[in-house]
Amino acid sequence: MKKIVVLTGAGISAESGIQTFRDADGLWEGYNIMEVASPEGFAANPELVLDFYNKRRKQLLDVKPNKAHYNLKELEKHFDVEIITQNVDDLHERSGSSKITHLHGELLKVRSTFDESIVINWKKDLFLGDLCSKKSQLRPHIVWFGEMVPLLDKAIEITKKADILVIIGTSMQVYPAASLIDFVKENTPIYFIDPKPSVSENEFKNLKIIKEIASKGMCKLKELLENK
């Protein structure tokens, strides 16, 4: 089976009702991004940060995967599909995809501030005073600005093995995730699904742009790949 590596961003989850990462003014649902998504923000006002992610977690539990998520699952009938996502939601998991790497962490998990290897599944609110087994405060299992991306090397190795690369709902402007496109083998077909793509087809060899929202674009891509 040919291997399809899929890079997904906020655009694929937006149709499910999850707001995209930030607005043009640099705010995330009305919050200054550095106040709620950085180690400095957490140190300065942990209650604000925990409340912010509690709200995001509740929102996630109220939404469902959309057609784009399900079509990625359907591709597994004919291809070896591996997803690398910048999203912290679990919509790929809920739609049934079997190989998912979360570059930026997972909203439904928390981890120890003392030992980052202590990661716990978590669907309820998280408060100051919620401690790990080593009596240290728990924090969202999210990669914040200024922190290392621990699964980047894994993502690079996955991308190197791609026979086909698919990019959905991401501007490819946020690094280091945007650098993954540089690791595909020469002559690898690349499909970019986005209604307002940030790149043009002449910027990358073998790049085809599908100017559609994620659900419509995935329908077109699925038909295209299955007919080849």
From TrEMBL:
**Compartments where located:** Cytoplasm
**Could you tell me the EC number(s) of this protein?**
2.3.1.286
What residues form the catalytic site here?
H104
Q: What class of enzyme is it?
A: transferase
The entry's substrate-binding residues are Y53, R56
Q: Which UniProt keywords apply?
A: Cytoplasm, NAD, Transferase
Mind telling me which InterPro entries this protein's record contains?
A: DHS-like_NAD/FAD-binding_dom, NAD-dep_sirtuin_deacylases, Sirtuin, Sirtuin_cat_small_dom_sf, Sirtuin_class_III, Ssirtuin_cat_dom
CDD domains recorded for this chain?
Answer: SIRT5_Af1_CobB (cd01412)
Q: What reactions does this protein catalyze?
A: N(6)-succinyl-L-lysyl-[protein] + NAD(+) + H2O = 2''-O-succinyl-ADP-D-ribose + nicotinamide + L-lysyl-[protein]; N(6)-acetyl-L-lysyl-[protein] + NAD(+) + H2O = 2''-O-acetyl-ADP-D-ribose + nicotinamide + L-lysyl-[protein]
The protein's matches in SUPFAM superfamilies, at most eight in alphabetical order, are given as: DHS-like NAD/FAD-binding domain
Q: Which Gene3D superfamilies does this UniProt record tie to the protein?
A: SIR2/SIRT2 'Small Domain, TPP-binding domain
Binding residues annotated for NAD(+), in chain numbering: 9-28, 86-89, 169-171, 214
Tell me the ranges covered by the Deacetylase sirtuin-type domain, including all copies: 1-228
- What PROSITE patterns does the database record attribute to this sequence? SIRTUIN
**Top-level taxonomic group:** Bacteria
Family in the record: Belongs to the sirtuin family. Class III subfamily.
Q: What is known of its domains?
A: 2 residues (Tyr-53 and Arg-56) present in a large hydrophobic pocket are probably involved in substrate specificity. They are important for desuccinylation activity, but dispensable for deacetylation activity.
Matching entries from HAMAP family are given as:
Sirtuin_ClassIII (MF_01121)
Q: What does this protein do?
A: NAD-dependent lysine deacetylase and desuccinylase that specifically removes acetyl and succinyl groups on target proteins. Modulates the activities of several proteins which are inactive in their acylated form.
Q: What is this protein called?
A: NAD-dependent protein deacylase
| Originating species | Polaribacter ponticola
